[in-house]
Design goal:
about 250 residues; alpha/beta; Alpha/beta knot; about 40% helix; elongated
Amino acid sequence: MNAKTWLFGFHAVGVRLKTAPATVLELHADAARRDQRMRQLLERAQAAGVRVLDSDDARLTQLAGSARHQGVVAHVAPLAHTHSLDDLLDAVEGAPLLLVLDGVTDPHNLGACLRVADGAGVHAVIAPKDHAVGLNATVAKVASGAAETVPYLMVTNLARTLNELKERDIRIAGTSDDAAQTLYEADLSGPIALVLGAEGRGLRQLTRKTCDQLLRIPMLGAVESLNVSVAAGVGLYEARRQRLARRP
């Protein structure tokens, strides 16, 4: 995020106040809304010493760049991301579970993927710096707080990063509609990075060649594919299910 960043919506702002209150510079709240949810958020902000400003709907929409602000917009400082991928993986206990997004440019899709990744206990989400969306207010709103909790690492060379993961014995499993093996036939219980491409285009050719295996989600109806965030949820929770099944 850039130096002047706006978060909006109760989930996104609430999680930032909980996890990094010092980065919340000021909070704009709808002066006409004082229900219990708003009062609780304002109490948390005031306890953290955050300046609270009353604003009307037009001003909130202008600040958020969206009418879906729920009456809450916060001016925040960017979070400090001091850990590299190597540092992050060195700190993982047990088998790493990673989500790799190749060419996802829609902020709503990224936000939904981050939310799924948080729920499934993913250690990090990785994407290329080119042909991908970065963290912004829309991503944070859709992620419902997960943009604050799940490391999102944008790398210069995705294929090189995948090869570095292989050196750590992390298996690279790409998704493709034409794969021979289904997601449910594969062993996803060990260290694994699940790689998904953008809707329609799928994985780029170099990314596809770098994968150790390609898997498909069985499609039994008329539609040919799932939204990338839905596919991420199916894949990540299958990996989590297999891990839970192997516990003694």
